[in-house]
Amino acid sequence: MSKTLKILLCSDDDGIMVKTIKSMVSGKGFDVNIVLVRDQHDVDSISKEIVDADIVYPDKAMITGEMIMSAEKVRLFQCGAGYDTVNLESARERKIHVCNMPGLTAQSVAEHAMYLMLALARNDRDYGQEMKDGKWNRGVGIELAGKTLGLIGFGNIGRIQARIAHGFGMKVIAFRKNKERGNDGLDFVDIVDFDYLLGKSDIISILLPLIKHGSYKTERLIGKKELEEIGGAGLGWLINTSRGSIVNENDLIESLRSGVIKKAALDVYEIEPLPEHSELRRLPNVLLTPHIAGDTKEALIRRYTLIAENAIKVMNNEKPRYIVKELQSVFVD
Length: 333
Fold this sequence. Notes:
Pfam family, one: 2-Hacid_dh_C
Domain D-isomer specific 2-hydroxyacid dehydrogenase catalytic: 34-324
Keywords: NAD, Oxidoreductase
Structural class: alpha/beta
GO molecular function: NAD binding; oxidoreductase activity, acting on the CH-OH group of donors, NAD or NADP as acceptor
CATH topology of the largest domain: Rossmann fold
Helix content: 25-40%
Strand content: 15-25%
Radius of gyration: 21 Å
Family: Belongs to the D-isomer specific 2-hydroxyacid dehydrogenase family.
Oligomer: single chain
């Protein structure tokens, strides 16, 4: 007899998600009930549906301790690359697996960061649309070759972006917490101190997870002082495809308004969706995208495949892949 499996997806269906997950899980002895809560800020609907869910994919929805305590059947919170939206202490207390997806979207995010860099280099102008509108407004851009790219974070995404940037002829330096791990065999990358990177880079690319507590805290890592250091070096550009709260957004807005930061390209924000009244929407020297760096067809299929695979594992009392480091001690063999 097939077992019923309820999977709560706090996301809209992109045409790939439900199809991929359902096709993988259905043939493994389960009757699958997939529930979508399309509005990730719909706390009431998430709270209602989580009560009898077996598997939860929060995406960018906040999963509070109260929600977790009410979720009597949940066996797995399957997050994306970041897992800062899940209350880990409550998950620990309930002994519920929390997993993420390290590396699955790395290629897509690295490519998006390079796209943002290229767009800034060409003045963030939609020349194609201007041409279709009958205009002939030429502009002068810059070459990326010879410029210094500073990577704050040197994990899966950082290593890929470093390779791409190196192919463009850029000099690459990087800061990582575990400096002793070196450049992972990428001899063209110099691992440097944080302040040195801020003061020597033409372009800064933020590639860190959001960590709110402890010695590895990254929340508000970049504030007024750091922005002034970035703005005083080279081109003074900042790119963030990581998490919005790593940068003090008010300080960033002021630095963009005053010209301390010459240009910025952002895919992530302290509040998402970015509020309509946000000053970021009105500044001429900032390029904005709606948190889409990891959303490519290839990355999405890898993501949804892992959701299905880990769902099957936990329902069969097997250990899922990529349990977050904070909870690994709870599930030792």
